[in-house]
Amino acid sequence: MTTSAPIRFRVFSLNCWGIRYLSKNCKERFVLIGDLLSQEQLDVALLQEVWCEKDFLFLKKKLNSIYPYSHYFKSGFIGSGLAVFSRHRIHDAFLYRYSLNGYPYMAQHGDWFGGKAVGKVLLNISGLTVHIFVTHLHAEYCREKDSYLPHRVVQAWELQQFIRHTSAGADVVILGGDLNMHPDDLGTRLLRNYTGLQDSFSETAHFDGCEEGHTHISENPFTNTDGLVPFGGGVRIDYILFKGSGEVDVSCESLSTTKGPVPGHPFPYSDHEALTAKFLFTPTTKGNGYSERQSGCVSDKLPELVNTVNEARTEVKVGLHCAERMRHTAARTGIMGLVLLVLELAIATIPLFALGTEQPFPKASFYLLGALCFAVLLSTLMLYVFYSMEVKALQGTEDQMRLALSSFQEQLKESPKVLSSDHLRKPLDSKDSIHF
Amino acid sequence: MTTSAPIRFRVFSLNCWGIRYLSKNCKERFVLIGDLLSQEQLDVALLQEVWCEKDFLFLKKKLNSIYPYSHYFKSGFIGSGLAVFSRHRIHDAFLYRYSLNGYPYMAQHGDWFGGKAVGKVLLNISGLTVHIFVTHLHAEYCREKDSYLPHRVVQAWELQQFIRHTSAGADVVILGGDLNMHPDDLGTRLLRNYTGLQDSFSETAHFDGCEEGHTHISENPFTNTDGLVPFGGGVRIDYILFKGSGEVDVSCESLSTTKGPVPGHPFPYSDHEALTAKFLFTPTTKGNGYSERQSGCVSDKLPELVNTVNEARTEVKVGLHCAERMRHTAARTGIMGLVLLVLELAIATIPLFALGTEQPFPKASFYLLGALCFAVLLSTLMLYVFYSMEVKALQGTEDQMRLALSSFQEQLKESPKVLSSDHLRKPLDSKDSIHF
Fold this sequence. Notes:
The structure is a homodimer.
Chain A: E1 7-15, H1 26-39, E2 44-48, H2 53-63, E3 69-75, E4 79-86, E5 90-97, H3 111-114, E6 117-125, E7 128-136, H4 149-166, E8 172-178, H5 186-195, E9 198-199, H6 200-203, E10 206-208, E11 216-217, E12 234-235, E13 238-243, E14 248-257, E15 275-283, H7 289-295, H8 302-353, H9 363-414
Parallel strand pairs in A: 1-2, 7-8, 10-14
Antiparallel strand pairs in A: 1-15, 2-4, 3-4, 5-6, 6-7, 8-13, 9-13, 11-12, 14-15
Helix pairs in contact in A: 1-2, 4-5, 4-8, 5-8, 8-9
C-alpha cells in the first residue's frame, strides 16, 4: 500500500551534550533545543547525549503537541542518551547495545557508563515503512594515539550489521547521530560501503551551514580547540545517512547545520552543531527492490568493501593483541598478589610452631600488607574477567569479518569481472590463508 | 530466484553440557556427539553449551567433510556456547547479547559468565533465504522461587524482537535451542505469539521420542531429578520452532528426540535430549508474503498477544521493583561504610590535635577496620553500578512493551472486530492509563 505521491521528510540530529552539573548552561540549552524543535517543522528529531531522563521528560512535555510520539532508549549506567521525537506514530522500537565501549576504570572518559548503543524506531509514512536509526559511538580523545579505535571499529561493524539485518523490510532507511568518526575514517567507510547508506552532506542539492559541513568547530565556546587545530578548526563527525529501496527513491533536497551561538544568546545549542536534512521520498513503480534489499551492498563496490573489511580486521587484531596483553598483565599481577599473601601468611604462622619466637613483623604492617594483597587479588581478578570479555568480543568480531570476507570471495567468484588481482590472493581454505 | 521443487531440510539441536572438568564424561560425549552428527544426514546442527572453544574445534575438524561450514559465537567470559554446523555455506552471522543475564556474584550458577545470546546465521538453500537462529536462555534453578524470571522474560522479549526485526527478508525462519522455559511459560508464549513461530513438536506429522517431547528427563544420569518430580519426571525446555513466509510453506514432517543412553554406552549425549526435525519447504506461487512478513504477527492473535505482553510487563515490573530495592540496599550499605570510615579517620586524628593523648585504638584494629570499610565502600559502589544497569535495562524493556501495547491498540482500533472488551479498557493518553 505505497502512496505514489512524493513525500517530503525532515530529519534533525543533535548531540545535546546533556551532562547535568558538568555541561555548561545545560538547563538553558535544553530550553533552547526545545524551542528550536518547536519552530522547525520536522518529521523526526534524533537526539544524542540526553543523559538525564528529566531532560528528556522536559522536552517530551514541551514538544507534546507538535511531536506526540517519542522514545527514550535506556542502557548502561546513565545511558544510552538516545532519544527520538516524532510527528508520526512510532510503531516499534529496538535497541542494540555495542559489545565494546571503553573501560569502566576510565571514569574520566565516561563512555563505558553511557552504555553506547544504536536505537531503531519504525515509522509508517503514507504506507511507506521508514526505519530510523539513532546512534552515538565511543568518543575519540586523542587522534594520534587513539586507544579506543578498535572499540569504535567494532561498534561501526555492529552498527552496519544491525542496520543491514534489521532493515530488509524497509522502504527507507535513515541513520542520524554522532559517529565520532571523520568522513574518511575506517569506521565510516565500513558503515557506508557495507550498508550502502549515502551521506546527506555529499548528496544534498543545497547546503547551508558550517564550512565543509563541520559539526564540531573550534569557534564553539564549549569545545576544546586544541584537538581541532590540525583539521583547520573543525571536523565533521555527526551525520545523517540515508538510503531508499527498489520501492522508493530517496533524495536529499537540502542539508543545513547550525552555525555557532543561538541567535540572541551568547552560547550555542551544544558543543556540536545540529543537522537538519530535508528528504524527498519518491515511490517508484519498478517494484524490483526486494533482491537488492537483501544483499544490502552493491556488487560493483565489493572490491572496495573487501579492502575496508580487511583494514577493519587488522584494526580488530591490533585491539585483540592489546586486550590479550592487558589480560596477561592482570593475571600476572594477580598471581604476584596471591604469592605475596601466601608468603605473608606463612611468615605469620612461624610463631605458632616456634613458641617463644617473637612475631616476625608488627601486627599493623601485617594487616595492612594483607589487605593490600587481597585488594590486588580482587581487582586483578575483576580486570581479568573484564579483559577476557573484551578478548571474546574482539575474537567474535574478527570471526564474523572472516566469514564476511569468505562470503564476498564467493560472490566475487560468481562475478569475477569486478575483481582486481589485488583483492584476492589466496583461496580461503584455512584461517591462515585468508588475506583477501 | 526461488526454486519451485519442494526441499527437505533437517535441523538438529542439542544442549551439549560442555563444561570442561565439571561436566561428567565431557570429552567422551563430544566424540559421541560428533559421531551422531556424522551419521545423521543433517542440513544444520545447532549446539548450545559448547563452552570450550577446543571442543568446537574438535567437532569442526571431525565434521569438516560433512559440514564444511560452521560458526562459533563468542560472548561474555566463557560463552556464548552457541555453535552452528552447516552443510550449506553460511553467508552471514550476527550475534545479539541479552542485556540481562543473572548476576556475576552468583558464580555457582555461572549464567552471567556465559554471556547468553542469540546467534543468527544466513543460509541460501536453492534460492531460498533461510534464517537460522540458535539461542540459550538463563537457566531456571528453582521454579517455585525463580528469582531469574524477570531476566528470562527480558531475554524472551529481546529474542522475539531480534527475530522479528532481522527476519523481514527471510523465506524461512528456524529457531533452535534451549529456552529453559516450559511450553506454556510466559516467555515461550511471548516468543511464539509475537513472532508467529510454530512449535515443531505440536506441528509435526510424526513424532518419535521421549514422552510428551521431554528433553530434560529424570532417567538421565546427569540430571538432578528433584526438580523434575512435580512434572512427572520430565520437561520440554528445548525447541525447534519454525515459520515460512508468503513465498514458502514450511511443514514439519517428523520430529525425534534421543532417548537416554547412547546405544552401546552407559551414558547419554548430554543432560538434555537432542532434537531432530525434518522440514519440507514448499515454494508457493502466491508471492503475497511481503506484507505478512513485515508485521510478524497475525492480527487475529492480537488480543492474545496483548494479554501476553501485559503479563510480561507485570513480570518486568516485579523485577524492576526488586532491582531498585537491591540498588537501594547497596547505596545504604555503601553510605554506612563511608560514615564508618570517616568516623574512624576522625578518631584517629584526635592524637594530632591533643598531643600526649594516647592512640584511641590499637593500630592493627585501626588498619583492619579501615580496610574493611574501604572494601565495603568499593564493593557496594560496584553493586550500585551493576543494579543501576539492571534497572535501566528493565525500564527500557518496560518502555518498549508499553510502546508495543500502544501500537497494538492502534491496530485493534483499525480492526475492532478482533477486540474483546477485556483487552482494551482505557485510552492510552498517559503512562498510568495503560492497562490494555
